Amino acid sequence: MSMSAQHARPTVLVVEDEFIIALDLSETVQDLGYALEGPFAATENALEAIDDHMPDVAILDVYCADGDVYPVADALTAKGVPIIFHSGHVPPQEVRERYPQALACSKPCPPSKIIDMVQEAVARMPAAA
Q: 53 is in which domain, residue-wise?
C-alpha cells in the first residue's frame, strides 16, 4: 500500500473506544508527523473509513464499542496494511497467532513503546509501486 497523492506522509488509522486512550494515541500519531484517520470507537465506522481511504498503518484495540475489531484487521491485512494491536484484554501472543505479521502490545503501554511500534509499522509499509 503506497501513500496516496493527497497525503505526503503516511496515514495512521486509530480504532479505540476508550476516549482518553484514543486521544493519546491520536496525539502521538500527529506528534510523529503522520496523518491521522480517526479515532473511531466502532468497527462499523472504521470499515466505512477504510472503504473511502485505505490507511498506510493502523493501531487497533481488539474490543470496540460494537464488537471485536477483527473485520477491520482482516480488511487491512488483505491490503497489506501493517497493524498494531493495542489491547488490555487480549494478550499480544494471541493476536499474533491470528495475525502473524502484526505488532501487538498490552495496555497500559509506555508511550515510547507505542512510538517505536508506529515507526516500525511505517517502516514495514510496502514500497510504492
A: 11-108
